[in-house]
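Reminder to self: C-alpha cells first, then the designed residues, so the page reads top to bottom the way the pipeline ran.
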C-alpha cells in the first residue's frame, strides 16, 4: 500500500507554497504519493481547514499545519512506510 500524503492549501498563499516545497523535498527522500487540494473548491474542506492551512495529512490523520514541522511529517511518513512493510 502506498503512503498517501494530502496537502490542503489555497491559491495566493505564500505559507502554502513554502509548505508544498517542504513536502516535495521529503518526497525526494522517501517515496510517497502527494495529493494537493484547494480548500476553496470544496465547502467541506473550507469549513475544516480555513484557518489552519496549509494542512498535511498522512493516511487521513492531520500531522502538521500552519508553519509545517518537516521532522514531524518525515517521522510519520517513515512510520507509515514501516507499518505497511511489516
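Designed residues (86 positions):
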Amino acid at each position: 500500500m502506498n503512503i498517501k500524503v494530502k496537502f490542503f492549501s489555497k491559491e495566493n498563499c505564500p505559507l502554502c507554497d513554502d509548505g508544498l516545497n517542504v513536502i516535495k523535498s521529503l518526497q525526494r527522500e522517501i517515496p510517497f504519493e502527494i495529493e494537493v487540494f484547494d480548500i476553496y473548491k470544496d465547502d467541506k474542506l473550507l469549513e475544516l481547514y480555513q484557518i489552519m492551512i496549509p494542512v498535511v495529512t498522512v493516511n487521513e490523520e492531520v500531522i502538521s499545519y500552519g508553519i509545517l514541522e518537516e521532522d514531524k511529517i518525515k517521522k510519520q511518513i517513515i512510520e507509515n512506510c514501516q507499518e505497511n512493510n511489516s
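Residues 14-29 form the longest helix (16 residues).
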